[in-house]
Design brief:
The protein has 8 helices and no strands. It has 221 residues and is mainly alpha-helical.
Length: 221
């Protein structure tokens, strides 16, 4: 079987990684509607909820993709360790980086964060006092829920730290996707790596701007 081989697993991991990166981009675009004001993000949330079961089906598919990606990352890491049970006496990492070396750890941290994020804003059980607010139009008041959440320093800090881990993971992961898929070469690799790092930086800045803007009072009720 293709996906039973190491190459197949890498290709599948690259594919699930690409799907997740696209989701992270789209999710940021949607979340950025908080800067428009209450009507922006509340209308966006209402539109999603109007899709009914389709939204939950999409969420389940994305969760499945994320879990497969994590499982493949762990499996490939263990296989690499088993293939070389004895460490080199003198190890030199010629084309690697700190972000590459800790990919498995940043991935696990992001898994924990995603679980927390789902409980926070999707299942809405971590902050029950602000989870069922309704705006003047009778829609779920997502704007107030987001602002009241990130006005709490610990919650804002948790999200900022998680986005730093996202930066570390994507700064290597985006370039690695093309390498695993065999879509790069020695000439294009430096460009792909640079573009990947800049995409990771832009995504981190975009996501971090939301809790920080709320925490310092730029976005408020």
């Amino acid at each position: 079987m293709l996906f039973g081989s190491s190459v197949g697993k890498k290709v599948l991991m690259a594919t699930t990684g690409l799907i997740l990166v696209m989701f992270v981009i789209v999710h940021l675009i949607g979340n950025s509607s908080v800067f428009v004001g209450p009507d922006g993000i509340n209308a966006y949330a209402a539109k999603l909820h109007s899709l009914g079961p389709v939204v939950w089906l999409f969420r389940l598919v994305m969760l499945g993709v994320f879990l497969v990606h994590i499982w493949l990352g762990i499996k490939l890491t263990l296989e690499n360790k088993m293939a070389r049970p004895v460490e080199y006496a003198q190890k030199k990492n010629l084309r690697t980086s700190y972000a590459a070396q800790i990919m498995i750890y940043t991935g696990i941290v992001l898994l924990i964060f995603v679980i927390y994020h789902l409980f926070h804003f999707t299942v809405r059980v971590t902050n029950p006092d602000i989870s069922n607010l309704v705006d003047a139009a009778g829609r779920m008041d997502v704007y107030s829920m987001v602002v009241l959440s990130f006005q709490k320093f610990f919650i804002a800090l948790t999200y900022v730290i998680a986005m730093v881990f996202l930066l570390l993971h994507l700064s290597h992961g985006i370039g690695s996707m093309f390498q695993s898929s065999g879509l790069n070469n020695a000439r294009t690799l430096p460009t792909i790596e640079t573009v990947g790092k800049w995409i990771a930086i832009v995504l981190m800045v975009g996501y971090v701007s939301i809790p920080i803007s709320i925490l310092v009072g730029i976005v408020k009720l």
